[in-house]
Task: structure prediction
Amino acid sequence: MTVATDFVRPVTGETFDALVGTRSGPVAVEFMSYGCEHCRLLEPVLQEVAETLGSQEAVFRVNIAVDQELAKRYQIEGTPTLVMLLNGEEVGRAVGPDPSVKVLWDAVTRPFEELA
Result:
């Protein structure tokens, strides 16, 4: 699937801490693999959620096949896994979320709403 605009920013082990770990405010990170069927199903929905969020939250993507150290650091056991961070600290997690806008929207935004 070709995405005209990618609203989910890819990060690697080299760029993660600078772009995600030290970022203030809410961040969602998708840990995925390009060989994962559930990840492919989730992709267009995640793009829609990321586009809707705009500047409210940042959505990033980590390919665990390439960045296994990040997967170990965040104890990722399956894909897709969404990890929500606030000021660099994990505040929520969704493993294998249903690829619907409502479920994904709730998974990404609820941890931040609960802290407010």
Q: What stands out?
A: The chain has a mean pLDDT of 90.
